[in-house]
Design goal:
Blueprint (H helix, E strand, L loop, with lengths): L3 H19 L19 H14 L22
Length: 77
């Protein structure tokens, strides 16, 4: 069963809910998975890291979560 995208979505929702309660208007969550408009392509991930590093300060916490099954891509499959 392919549940990695569901794990990522559940974690994003938990972080949003906790952040809203504990640090209102100070928590930003970005979700990239197969179910979102923003797919987790190499380019999208690199762009996110570039944007985040430009706006995050030394007092910020940046949490990155990658979920996957480590499948190999062979040929066109």
């Amino acid at each position: 069963m392919d549940a990695a995208h569901l794990d990522a979505a559940a974690l994003a929702e938990a972080l949003k809910a906790s952040g809203k309660r504990l640090l209102p208007d100070r928590v930003e969550v970005t979700l990239m998975n197969s179910d979102t408009e923003q797919k987790p392509t190499r380019e999208a991930i690199r762009k996110w890291f570039d944007q985040t590093s430009a706006k995050a300060s030394s007092s910020d916490i940046v949490f990155v979560f990658f979920a996957g099954h480590g499948t190999n891509v062979i040929g066109d499959k």
